Amino acid sequence: MKKLILCFIAIFLFNDTVLTWGFFSHYKINKMAVYTLPESMNTFFLNHIQLLEDKAVNADKRKFTVKDEAPRHFIDIDAYSLDSPFAVMPKKWDDAVAKYSEDTLIKYGILPWHINKQYHILVKALKEHKVERSINLLSDLGHYIADAHVPLHTTLNYDGQLSNQKGIHAFWESRLPELFVKNYDFYLPKISYQDDILSYVWSIIESSYSAKDSVLAFEAKLNKSYSSDLKFSIVRKGQGDKKVYSEEYSKAYHTMLDGMVERQMRKSILAIGCIWYSAWIDAGQPNMDEWQYQEND
């Protein structure tokens, strides 16, 4: 209980520093991922959809109470090379540790390896019919996979702090979806089994990284044509006022991105569905229809 109270105090006090899709988007992504699953397994997920949604942000809450949590949400891949980071970085954990050291990897983020590790823990939990454990792992995996689709989770310039664009992280992944998600289309193609989760996740990271220059360049270009009083506005948040990017500026940036935020959310949902499905297959396709969540099962 004490940890939980401290967690919520930290979130309240340091909300502006929580670099993530934003609670709103994580809830939405985990919930929509349930609807990608085939009928052969979705009874359990539909029965527990509220839990999967509610727990979608637990990984972010742990950043304030668990020492090693933060590096699990990102990988600053350009710390290893500006020209060809994916060529120099070994894909397997042991090879990467041998080349760069574990301390270095943790410093710059371990997102792809952590997803792979959590995947195999989930498979084991599903095999053993551990319902609470499975729900927690499914929810956390959804969170980490969604983070892998955020371009600014792949770079040293994660909040525009190196290019005089501080605040762009929350702008891209929180402010934009909160304003425009009602217009997004989340109809998705069928999910597919992934036989190499680590390679699959690395492909996601590489794709996200390829978009980070546009994320930064478009906002930098737009910034030149807006004065501060038009770029920002004051909105009521909770019991106080908060400075946010104005709706006009947000709409202009959203238009310049040409659907990028929507695409990344859609890709997140599809990838989560694929990985949940693959874990179920690798666990031997257990019949989960009668599984019921109970605390500390």
Structural write-up:
The chain is globular. The protein has 15 helices and 2 strands. Strand 1 (232-237) and strand 2 form a beta hairpin. By secondary structure, it is mainly alpha-helical. The longest helix has 27 residues, at 197-223. It has a single domain (2-282), classed as P1 Nuclease. Strands 1-2 form a two-stranded antiparallel ribbon. The chain has helices at 2-13, 23-34, 42-47, 49-54, 58-61, 85-88, 93-100, 102-108, 111-127, 131-148, 168-180, 197-223, 228-231, 247-257, 260-282; strands spanning 232-237, 240-245.
Protein traits:
two-stranded antiparallel ribbon, mainly alpha, 297 residues, globular, single chain
What is the gist of this entry?
The chain is mainly alpha-helical and 297 residues long. The chain has helices spanning 2-13, 23-34, 42-47, 49-54, 58-61, 85-88, 93-100, 102-108, 111-127, 131-148, 168-180, 197-223, 228-231, 247-257, 260-282, and strands at 232-237, 240-245.
Task: Tell me the layout of helices and strands.
Elements: H1 2-13, H2 23-34, H3 42-47, H4 49-54, H5 58-61, H6 85-88, H7 93-100, H8 102-108, H9 111-127, H10 131-148, H11 168-180, H12 197-223, H13 228-231, E1 232-237, E2 240-245, H14 247-257, H15 260-282
Antiparallel strand pairs: 1-2
Helix pairs in contact: 2-10, 2-15, 7-8, 9-10, 9-12, 9-15, 10-15, 11-14, 12-14
Number of helices: 15
**Range of helix content:** 55-70%
In terms of per-residue confidence, which ranges show pLDDT below 50 for 5 or more consecutive residues?
1-18
Query: Architecture in CATH?
Result: Orthogonal Bundle
Q: How many domains is the backbone divided into?
A: 1
First-residue to last-residue Cα separation: 19 Å
CATH homolog superfamily: P1 Nuclease
**Taking all residues together, what is the mean pLDDT?**
92
Quick one: overall form? globular
Task: Please outline the major beta sheet.
Answer: 2 strands, antiparallel
Strand line-up of the largest beta sheet: 1-2
Quantity of strands, as a count? 2
CA-based gyration radius: 19 Å
Q: Strand-and-helix sequence, N→C? A: HHHHHHHHHHHHHEEHH
Protein structure class = mainly alpha
CATH structural class: Mainly Alpha
